[in-house]
Amino acid sequence: PQGFPELKNDTFLRAAWGEETDYTPVWCMRQAGRYLPEFRETRAAQDFFSTCRSPEACCELTLQPLRRFPLDAAIIFSDILVVPQALGMEVTMVPGKGPSFPEPLREEQDLERLRDPEVVASELGYVFQAITLTRQRLAGRVPLIGFAGAPALQLFESHAGHLGPQLFNKFALPYIRDVAKQVKARLREAGLAPVPMIIFAKDGHFALEELAQAGYEVVGLDWTVAP
């Protein structure tokens, strides 16, 4: 896309495509996190969701670890909970518990409360703004892992281990496959170059073969799997 600086370090992207690289590229889960004093300082300025809705704050938090460490990729600071918010659902952060939905979706008719997808896309404009701003400020140093618009995408299935093999194959795997299929199809339809996609299913060690055939270029391993 026009307006983005030329990428100077593509080691991560080449590795994601299965190409040989001079070294193993490194990026870290939660690399923008509480272990950084500057992260804690930035986060203290406003509440979590206000931070997520600020492209400037998301960009700053994304770039902080790269100022300290020679990482091979940045990963955009955001959260999946901004999606149900954009759909019109209330999400609260309960101290000692974490995110909570005061009015969860329990029945089929509850879906009628959700906003139209076109409205949702507009509501999430700040995410795209954060990605654009971050790519510009990276100045081509490393690629950005993020949501639509980033040169690499990662899909998280954070509850694979809670489901177990049977329920995972029924309730998660079909949608994991569909996400990869739809993203690749829409990129083709838009005349855009393909981007490598990563699937990370936490504690999903029982489904590595299925995940390897799900349409992603990279399968993420967690601490329960010997690399």
What does this structure look like?
With 227 residues, this protein is α/β, with parallel strands linked by helices. It has two domains: 1-150, TIM Barrel; 154-227, no CATH class. The protein has ten helices and seven strands. The strands form two sheets. Strands 1-4-5-6-7 form a five-stranded parallel beta sheet. Strands 2-3 form a two-stranded antiparallel ribbon. Helix 2 packs antiparallel against helix 4 and helix 4 (55-68) packs parallel to helix 7 (125-138). The radius of gyration is 18 Å and the shape is globular. The two termini are 35 Å apart. The relative contact order is 0.13. The model has no long low-confidence stretch (mean pLDDT 92). GO terms for molecular function: uroporphyrinogen decarboxylase activity. Belongs to the uroporphyrinogen decarboxylase family. It is found in: Cytoplasm, Cytosol.
Features:
single chain; 227 residues; alpha/beta; TIM Barrel; 2 domains; two-stranded antiparallel sheet; 10 helices; 7 strands; globular; Uroporphyrinogen decarboxylase; uroporphyrinogen decarboxylase activity; heme biosynthesis
- Secondary structure tally: strands: 7
Looking at the structure, the CATH topology of the largest domain is TIM Barrel
* SSE string, helices as H and strands as E: HHHHEHEEHHEEHHEHE
Helix fraction by DSSP (H/I, runs of at least 4): 40-55%
Tell me the overall shape. Answer: globular
**Architecture of the largest domain, CATH level 2?**
Alpha-Beta Barrel
